[in-house]
Automatic annotation (TrEMBL):
Protein species of origin: Gehongia tenuis
HAMAP family: SurE
Pfam families given in the database record: SurE
Name of this protein: 5'-nucleotidase SurE
Any coiled-coil regions, as ranges: none
């Protein structure tokens, strides 16, 4: 398959290298990735400044393009200008999970969503760890094969983005892959810590506190299962319409107009 590989951690990140090393022997890979880290950029695109592109040898036999833009910029520029039309877009491996509501902020997932918006089968893969920095990119790279296989065998519609999170655990603690919905209870409790600069000005630094897995946890969701040693596979879609509420809203609007 011809695969466009991107990420949000930047073209020099170890996760994207592990992914390409895993897939390059079997597939035609082109890397189009941000020149610098673009984490939490969500689905932003660059419209007020030009995008600079530096072509390079990413690794033996693999062409890379470093783009001074966001992950979504990379996908758009890649499929529209820099390479032949790909068979799929694959984003990752992200250093850190993209689970639950995190997908709304994730540059990794948004790059895959951009691929789907443009009509290409797309997927994202991320590495989850409870010990920040101890990422098992090797396992995540191997498990990414399931994403390629699902798309090769046309098991999902091109408008669906496959989101895979792989835990970094010991081999004997790894339990395999489970399909799971997003856990909509935020994985972290966030706030802002007020500090004072040397110049006496107030500034704010975001703080995070992990959500404990208590009895009220959504135990079939991706967060719980990934913490329990499973890789989680979640189908995502860019249609944000809440279809179930359309009839009620239509009835309300019709009644209002009849009263006028």
């Amino acid at each position: 398959m011809r695969i466009l590989v991107t990420n949000d951690d930047g073209i020099r990140a170890p996760g994207i290298r592990a992914l390409v090393e895993q897939l390059a022997p079997k597939h035609d890979i082109t890397v189009v990735a941000p020149a610098e880290e673009q984490s939490a950029k969500s689905h932003s695109i660059t419209i007020h400044t030009p995008l600079m592109v530096r072509k390079q040898v990413f690794m033996s036999g693999v062409t890379g393009y470093a783009v001074t833009g966001t992950p979504s910029d990379c996908v758009r520029l890649g499929v529209l200008q820099l390479m032949e039309k790909p068979d799929m877009v694959l984003s990752g491996i992200n250093a850190g999970s993209n689970i639950g509501l995190d997908v709304l902020y994730s540059g990794t997932v948004s790059a895959a969503l951009e691929g789907a918006l443009l009509g290409y089968p797309s997927a994202a893969v991320s590495s989850f760890t409870k010990d920040w920095g101890a990422f098992d990119f090797e396992r995540a790279a191997k498990e990414s094969e399931i994403l390629v296989k699902l798309i090769e065998e046309k098991k999902v519609d091109a408008s669906i983005v496959l989101n895979l999170n792989v835990p970094s655990v010991q081999d004997d603690a790894y339990k395999g892959v489970k399909v799971a919905p997003l856990d909509l209870d935020p994985a972290t409790r966030e706030n802002y810590e007020k500090r004072i600069s040397p110049a006496g000005e107030a500034y704010y630094w975001m703080t995070f506190q992990a959500r404990p897995n208590g009895p009220d946890s959504f135990q079939q969701g991706d967060l719980y299962l990934c913490q329990d040693g499973y890789s989680t596979l979640t189908p995502l879609h860019f249609d944000l319409t809440q279809h179930r509420d359309l009839p009620a809203l239509e009835a309300w609007v019709e009644a209002r107009e009849n009263e006028a």
